[in-house]
Amino acid sequence: MNKKFRFLTSGESHGKCLNGIIEGVPAGFPISVEEINHELWRRQQGYGRGGRMQIESDKVEIKSGIRHGISTGAPICLEIKNKDYENWKTVMDTEPVEITEENLKKIQEKSFTKLRPGHADYAGFVKYGFDDLRNVLERSSARKTAMEVAIGSVAKQILKQFKVNSCINITQIGQAQINGKLKVESGKLFYNNQAFSIDEISYLSEQSEVRCFDKETSENMKAEIDKAKEEGTTLGGKFEVYYTGLPVGLGSYVHYDRAIDGRIAQAVMSIPAVKAVEIGEGVNLSGVNGTKTHDPFALKNGKIVRTSNNAGGIEGGMTNGETLVVKGTMKAIPTMKTPLPTVDIKDMTKAEAHFERSDACAVPACAVVAEARIAIVLIDEFLDKFGGDSFAEIKAHYEC
Q1: Fewer Cβ neighbours under 10 Å: the N or C end of the chain?
Q2: What residue ranges of the chain have pLDDT lower than 50?
Q3: Closest Cα to residue 186, out of 10, 39, 366, 323?
């Protein structure tokens, strides 16, 4: 399909930097570097995050496409420098390095051949024929999601101009989970029949170290993470992303690859460690009949409204005007202090998995990445429907 908002990223986990080039941002949109940096900060937070987050303090540099804080219509180039590169210069240099005893020692210390279960190591080793799994780790690492969050922030800033807003909520980490029924309807979240506005959910979740709006559950989640740390293992969990203010008709039913729920599912599913994606009530719908599955229409002050939102804001591959509800499930991070049995590809012998610095839990960070990736899908569809070359032109199309 012909995308309106296109981007490419490059960079390795311990390389010089991460880069992103965005094509398709119309002229005239205010783009704040402070807002991008705030999103990068959000990604780095969360109870259970590891040592890398103490080394990096991600800041973006806008290299082109923005003048005096306003988009020009030209491609936007973003860069995030890896501070840790100072410790990896010889190992990750893009140029051939001098063959000295010291340099060889540095490279050998960072090379590894012991496959890590749950990572891209084995498939990458077979696919690309590497004899050093460092080549797989560096690009398959979730470090690259930092640039995706930066690009997603640009998308979110454009969407906000049309009163489209978002927030996230962690509903489970390990065995600790929200103890009650969550429902999102008419821009509000109902928890055990108590209503919260999306703004309230956003505020409460951002105050939590695990980004769960419920204080008691947050403490239970932190206790689960502490226990996992003591045991040398890791935890996964579940998160939800909400977008309000979306117009009716983003996406399409005419071809499978234009269905917006399919595009959203792919965007979230391809985040490292995500193993399931749901829209609306998702898997909960498997055990109920049709009368409890679909969202009835009603009239209110002469307008068509819904009395529920089980569909999560999408029907027939298109947004239907209700709150978009996307749920994701993240597996436990496979890099653990207590290593799993594996094979060393160097000599095909039994071994214990290679350990690289890791988080005990990254579910809150994963939710921030999902929020960004969803924004990228939404802005692409938004520009396809209301597109133009400038903010003023798009606003006129949107309001007519």
Answers
A1: C
A2: none
A3: 323
